[in-house]
Design goal:
This protein is an alpha/beta fold. The protein contains 13 helices and eleven strands.
Length: 328
């Protein structure tokens, strides 16, 4: 569902690792449906040619009436797994929530790169997945392929997450880095779009919405608190002047869009805002698309850094969840 940069990167990974998936995990796959705004609902239960799809060659509908909605599409495709990569709606999480709900209801696993469903419907969707004996997974929603959501239940059992701080939006990091090099704000945005980390309309990144949704998703899932998006204090980077960004850099400091969450009693205080960091702060040393997060646990602290990922890293997050869902 959705076939932009992430969907294409994921499909390329599936093709590149096809032999390995079969040999190591006994997993075979077949692409039976693609849905996009431009090309509509395409379902071929016998399988589509993935290389042709990647090259923009879309076949005619297999037979019968074309699908009219997501339910028709999934049923005609005979889907075992839905990969949800539609555009993010920060305020409602739709239509991604309905896509995932329909897939789970029909008995398919749902793997999402869309953060909206976590913030607006996590408990409902995980409960439905459990009821249907299927998986709802979303590792690629924060820090691409870094195993954050899967790490806590499997690798950090019986820990309490008291808070976290990080730089979680690649677009703003690219823009700030480019401005430091002497380029304009607009040139920084174009650079982020050229490398595939920014959408045609980058407002969600620049205004802090993408980072705020990630903070809320982490707090809801990892800290087990009911969190509304409007409870995240949010400021983007548009108000920072280019001259100021460059001048503090020459003084050994840097601006970063910093995400924070801290447990306070029975609630969590969350924020997203530009912060001026000293060069000694590990977050200040993040370049380009790099991102990082530090988790403050009751027993120790843990930091994760993703070094200059490309769009393939997000595709890998989908691939990893695919294997978690279907590998024996």
């Amino acid at each position: 569902m959705g076939f932009g940069n992430v969907g294409k990167a994921f499909l390329r990974l599936l093709i590149a690792k096809e032999t390995e998936l079969h040999r190591r995990y006994d997993v075979r796959w077949r692409l039976t449906g693609v849905a996009t705004r431009r090309n509509g609902w395409l379902a071929h239960p016998e399988g589509l040619n993935p290389l042709a799809i990647l090259n923009g060659h879309w076949p005619a509908q297999h037979h019968g009436a074309p699908p009219r909605n997501v339910r028709d599409w999934l049923e005609q495709a005979k889907a075992d797994v839905l990969f949800e990569a539609s555009s993010l709606d920060v305020h409602a999480g739709q239509p991604a929530i309905d896509h995932i709900k329909t897939a789970l209801t029909l008995g398919a696993h749902a793997v999402s790169v869309n953060k909206g469903p976590i913030v607006h419907a996590l408990r409902e969707l995980t409960s439905l997945a459990r009821e249907k004996g299927k998986k709802f997974l979303y590792e690629a929603t924060v820090m691409d392929g870094v195993p954050i959501f899967s790490m806590f239940p499997l690798g950090l059992p019986a820990t309490e997450l008291r808070g976290f701080v990080g730089v979680l939006n690649s677009t703003t990091n690219v823009v700030l880095t480019e401005i430091e090099k002497g380029r304009s704000f607009e040139e920084g945005v174009k650079r982020a779009q050229a490398i595939g980390v920014a959408e045609g309309d980058p407002s969600a990144d620049l205004d802090g919405w993408d980072a705020a949704v990630k903070v809320a998703a982490l707090a809801i899932d990892l800290m087990n608190v009911p969190m509304r998006l409007d409870q995240v204090r949010r400021t983007g980077i548009r108000e920072l002047s280019e001259d100021k960004i460059r001048s503090v850099r020459t003084s050994g400091m840097r601006y970063k869009l910093v995400c924070r969450a801290e447990r306070r009693g029975d609630h969590v205080d969350c924020s997203v805002q530009p912060e001026l960091l000293l060069a000694s702060d590990p977050l200040a040393n993040l370049e380009g698309t790099s991102s990082a997060v530090r988790f403050d646990l009751d027993v120790f602290g843990l930091s994760l850094v993703e070094h200059n990922p490309g769009i393939e890293a997000t595709g890998y997050g989908l691939l990893a969840d695919f294997l978690r869902a279907v590998a024996k």
